[in-house]
Design a protein that fits this description.
The structure is a single chain. The chain is α/β, with parallel strands linked by helices. The chain is 49% helix and 16% strand. Strands 3-2-1-4-5-6-7 form a 7-stranded parallel β-sheet, with helices on both faces. It has a 6-stranded parallel β-sheet with strand order 10-9-8-11-12-13, sandwiched between helices. Helix 10 links the parallel strand 8 and strand 9. Helix 1 crosses helix 18, helix 10 packs parallel to helix 11 and helix 10 packs across helix 16.
Length: 377
């Protein structure tokens, strides 16, 4: 069968590529065409547009690049129409993908599957009506999403979380600390990891304060930045030039986290990755107009937390510093707690264990592939 996938960022590229591999196991004649990235390309098929040309974050970047976004939408619609797939699989990326879903269901007649539900439970709850109207099957990766959609009389599937799969099947799974530092020519010193985001705008907002927060720990720890896919090394040099001992490593996020004593992490999938790998973390997220952003969180968003770890456990497992609360002093103090107060550290790790039990076993992409394949054939 023919499958058309649309993923608009790095995490979508990863999870879509694993889904493609699972579909291949069920469908030996699977043919793929997609908007995505290098990982999807390595899984096989035709890459039509790379996600680097799609990712615009924030109101002003979207407005400034509106012509490009419209061109990409037109290209995607035209390409799907010409390809005539047996199934269209949309991966997160709601601003773009919901428009594609609407086009397919109103102008074409292909089944639409949505893998990794957009976070409509946090805001834009009204979008649920559109998903019910334009998406044949919603495949969720967060347990609490099932109850959320039930409130709207929308039956969805919880297939497990693909981050569990990715970490379970990662390379260097049994690597020792000594092997890691030797292979990267690093000193034999404990590690603090910095995960500052996947987009330039996020990195520019988060990394300077992160680096300042860990400044007082450089005597006993080495600082390693997990470089984001698609971001040039030179971009990081703007922020590390005055910190020659800070190291940036690319394509090694799981390896870095697995060997770290603590991590400073932006909100998103990275918080889940750190928790699954048992790394004590503090969540940091810089927002423009901090006071306004804090007000919006309290009065507009329908969620008590911003990190997936806390949302899954429905309690504060990790500290969240964002908008007004994201200060160097707050982050530095929390880092000290995680590194030096054993009871505090162990409590966080115990909560991580509970979170992993809630998420369930690995196999999300396999379960999602079975639903798509069985309902398409």
């Amino acid at each position: 069968m023919k499958y058309y996938l649309v993923a608009g960022e790095a995490s979508g590229d990863l999870h879509a590529s694993n889904l493609m591999k699972s579909l291949k196991e069920l469908d030996k004649n699977a043919d793929f065409r997609f908007f995505g990235g290098d990982l999807m390309k390595s899984a096989g098929g035709t890459l039509v547009k790379h996600y680097r040309e799609l990712a615009f974050m924030g109101i002003m970047p979207v407005i400034m690049n509106s012509r490009t976004i419209l061109k990409n939408l037109s290209l995607c619609k035209r390409d799907i129409s010409e390809y005539k797939p047996d199934a269209v699989i949309l991966v997160d990326y709601p601003g773009f993908n919901l428009k594609i879903a609407k086009y397919i269901k109103t102008k074409l007649s292909f089944p639409v599957y949505y893998y990794i539900s957009p976070k409509v439970w946090a805001w834009k709850e009204y979008r649920v009506k559109s998903f019910k109207k334009y998406v044949d099957e919603m495949l969720c990766i967060l347990p609490f999403e099932v109850d959320f959609f039930k409130k709207h009389n929308y039956d969805v599937h919880y297939v497990g979380n693909p981050t569990v799969d990715a970490i379970e099947n990662r390379n260097y799974k049994y690597e020792s600390f000594n092997d890691f530092v030797k292979s990267n020519e690093l000193p034999d010193t404990p590690i603090i990891a910095l995960l500052a985001g996947s987009r330039k705008q996020e990195i520019a907002g988060n990394l300077p304060s992160m680096l300042e927060s860990v400044g007082s720990y450089t005597d006993g720890y080495q600082i390693i930045i997990a470089g984001a896919p698609g971001i040039d090394r030179d971009f990081y040099k703007r922020y590390t030039a005055s910190n020659p001992d800070v190291v940036v490593l690319f394509d090694q996020t799981y390896r870095i986290l697995a060997q770290s004593d603590a991590a400073l992490v932006t909100s998103g999938t990275a918080t889940l990755e750190a928790a699954i790998l048992d790394v004590p973390q503090v969540v940091c997220y810089r927002m423009s107009a901090p006071k306004l952003s804090s007000w919006a969180f309290r009065n507009i968003l329908h969620t008590p937390y911003i990190s997936l770890v806390n949302l899954i456990c429905n309690q504060e497992v990790v500290k969240e510093y964002f908008a007004e609360s994201f200060t160097v002093e707050n982050v530095r103090r929390e880092l000290g707690q995680m590194l030096h107060v054993q009871k505090y550290r162990q409590n966080m790790l115990n909560n991580y264990k509970e979170m992993r039990e809630i998420l369930g076993e690995s196999g999300a992409s396999g379960r999602a592939a079975k639903i798509i394949y069985s309902k398409t054939t």
